[in-house]
Recover the amino acids of this structure.
């Protein structure tokens, strides 16, 4: 058959199989080699049409393969058939995210979701000693929890977050003496730098809560939103409390674990005065004041601080009431409000020298433990610790 244009040849062959297209191409090759009278121009047109028809057939075949494995999930990106080879990278994929929440709802998983879930669980089994059924939170969900904490004007917001999946040692070096003027030729004595390490241990945080079995009927996005909120409340409320009052024994150490005496604290009898705040601020060692903040609970703020004024009648506490969430200041320094701090206790210091480490967040589910109540139990665990990195970065004003 003769073709005047490549389009004509393409339209003729596009409905034929790849085998038929390749057979015709071989026939044209033999004609060119054996027939001296063959019309080379017409054969070239036909070959171009065959080439385009074969390419079109291959593209359609690839598209059909994608459609076979395409499973749209509400709120998640379109799934693919390929997964990263590293389990940590799989944690960031939408496939593992949907598999994680489907498994908690006892919903069936697609093939690629099963592969993603299995890859993370195999690494989890090799990593820790807890139950291998514990599901590690998807990266996106873990980030959403931290974002919720960042919305709070609290200690977890101001303190340094490491999020390193291991025990952590932070070296701290004290300030060195100033350089000395040197007389030419005179000997100079060296000085040693002796860093002290602050160690963050691996304590367990745990919380068990129950959800009605009707949660299994929730849409995936709704269930994730609900579970994320519960996780944020459970883990970060505990971390907030530890940053304030943790003892350091089988738990994180907080501000209350610092040894306060006459060199780094002040007291007041009934209510603090303007002079008490000035004197307390003066106790903080030079160098820490540049990034210092005041920290107290809401009750202390409104009962003891809110109405205070200086000698000229100017208020100590300043807040932009016209803008919700605007920073508040006391003597020109930001105020951190946390209900975990004890009443009538006010801290002043640089909270960049307060740290916490929160990692390995996991969720397990059980339908047997609350079988009679038609509830599903969820156990949330994490490994965490917190403590003041440099104790001298904080001073205290409290009721005697």
């Amino acid at each position: 058959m003769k073709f005047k244009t490549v389009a004509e040849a393409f339209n003729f062959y596009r409905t034929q199989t790849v085998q038929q297209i390749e057979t015709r191409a071989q026939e044209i090759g033999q004609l060119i080699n054996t027939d001296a009278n063959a019309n080379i121009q017409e054969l070239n047109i036909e070959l171009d049409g065959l080439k385009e028809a074969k390419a079109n057939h291959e593209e359609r075949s690839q598209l059909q393969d994608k459609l076979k494995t395409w499973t749209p999930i509400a709120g998640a990106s379109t799934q693919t058939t390929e997964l990263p080879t590293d389990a940590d990278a799989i944690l960031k994929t939408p496939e593992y995210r949907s598999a994680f929440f489907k498994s908690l709802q006892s919903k069936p998983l697609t093939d690629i979701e099963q592969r993603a879930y299995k890859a993370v669980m195999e690494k989890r089994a090799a990593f820790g000693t807890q139950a291998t059924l514990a599901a590690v939170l998807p990266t996106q969900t873990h980030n959403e929890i931290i974002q919720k904490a960042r919305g709070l004007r609290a200690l977890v917001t101001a303190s340094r977050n490491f999020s390193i999946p291991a025990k952590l040692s932070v070296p701290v070096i004290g300030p060195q003496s100033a350089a000395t003027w040197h007389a030419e030729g005179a000997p100079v004595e060296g000085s040693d730098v002796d860093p002290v390490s602050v160690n963050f241990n691996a304590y367990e945080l745990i919380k068990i809560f129950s959800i009605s079995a009707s949660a299994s009927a929730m849409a995936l996005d709704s269930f994730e939103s609900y579970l994320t909120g519960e996780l944020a409340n459970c883990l970060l409320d505990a971390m907030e409390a530890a940053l304030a009052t943790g003892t350091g024994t089988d738990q994180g150490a907080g501000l209350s674990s610092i040894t306060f005496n006459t060199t780094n604290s002040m007291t007041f009898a009934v209510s603090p005065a303007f002079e008490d705040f000035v004197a307390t601020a003066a106790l903080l060692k030079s160098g820490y004041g540049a990034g210092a903040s005041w920290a107290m609970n809401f009750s202390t703020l409104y009962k003891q601080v809110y109405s205070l004024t200086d000698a000229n009648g100017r208020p100590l506490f300043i807040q932009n009431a016209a803008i919700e969430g605007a920073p508040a200041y006391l003597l020109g320094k930001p105020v951190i409000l946390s209900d975990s701090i004890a009443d009538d206790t006010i801290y002043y210091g640089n909270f960049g020298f307060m740290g916490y480490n929160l990692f390995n967040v996991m969720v397990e589910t059980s339908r047997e433990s609350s079988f009679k109540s038609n509830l599903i139990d969820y156990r949330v665990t994490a490994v965490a610790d917190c403590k003041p990195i440099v104790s001298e970065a904080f001073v205290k004003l409290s009721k005697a």
